[in-house]
Design goal:
Blueprint (H helix, E strand, L loop, with lengths): L7 E7 L2 E6 L3 E6 L5 H6 L4 H23 L2 H5 L5 H13 L12 H4 L3 H7 L10 H4 L4 E4 L4 E4 L14 E12 L4 E8 L3 E2 L7 E3 L10 E14 L2 E4 L5 E6 L1
Antiparallel strand pairs: 1-2, 2-3, 4-5, 5-9, 6-7, 6-8, 6-10, 10-11, 10-12
């Protein structure tokens, strides 16, 4: 999916005024606000600002870690705003941290709470192709082993018109949020022919992550078109989501 370019661009500055041009709103002017960095860090009335900035920085790092760790195939199905949506989701998870005070709350502590896990569960990598609309079948997930089973039902996939085959892929991601490192185990099926009857699908990783940390399990559906003896990836209708935390 093509990324949308911003329609807002800077055309000039004067004193503390900045001039912009927007294709939708025409010419705009905004006042530039400047704060002394030392004052922001030490003044009491900026204490809440620093707390928010510290927590937001931690959230953004965890979102970047998951995005980086999930692998190129999962990133390929993401929409243009997936990263910003993931940051927003992790920010809500962080607020479930019942252990730390303001300014020290973390995503890892938020994920120890059932409410925090529920917020991340079902996160769609691409809002244009919600996972439950692309894969319309019941699934069972064992987070301890990363084992996923998908039940065979009629019309279990929402097929694009040109697709001839489909592939399912899982990613078991272990996030060490202290060291900011991630370890990922990918598992995938072979190509499943559109013409064959529905079959049960099983994704069982042959190995487990070796490090410690928080596990996040993702599931993806990817469509192909076969021409001759070769199958080519379709650029749309990919779907992926978080199925285990």
């Amino acid at each position: 999916m093509a990324r949308q370019k911003s329609t807002l661009k800077v055309t000039g500055t004067m004193d503390d005024l900045t001039f912009y041009y927007s294709r939708t709103d025409g010419y705009l002017v905004r006042r530039t606000h400047r704060h002394d960095s030392k004052k922001v860090k030490t003044a009491q009335n900026f204490e809440r600002t620093m707390e928010n900035a510290t927590e937001f920085g931690g959230v953004a790092k965890v979102a970047a870690l998951l995005r980086r760790s999930m692998g190129s195939k999962f990133r390929s199905c993401a929409d243009a705003r997936m990263t910003s949506r993931l940051i927003s989701t992790f920010h809500k998870v962080m607020k479930e941290d019942r252990i730390s005070g303001r300014g020290k709350r973390t995503v890892v502590n938020g994920l120890t709470e059932p409410e925090g896990k529920a917020i991340l569960m079902g996160f769609n990598l691409n809002k244009s192709y919600p996972f439950n609309q692309i894969l319309r079948a019941n699934k069972s997930v064992d987070l301890e082993t990363g084992h996923i089973q998908i039940e065979a039902v009629p019309n279990m996939f929402h097929w694009p018109p040109t697709a001839t085959h489909v592939l399912c892929r899982s990613a078991r991601v272990r996030l060490d949020m202290d060291k900011m490192e991630g370890e990922t185990i990918l598992t995938e099926t072979g190509l499943i022919d559109r013409k064959q009857p529905p079959v049960n699908i099983e994704l069982a990783p042959e190995i487990q992550p070796s490090g410690s940390g928080q596990d996040v399990l993702l599931l993806q559906v990817q469509f192909y078109i076969q021409e001759g003896d070769k199958a080519y990836e379709l650029s749309e209708h990919w779907a992926g989501c978080v199925v285990g935390v």
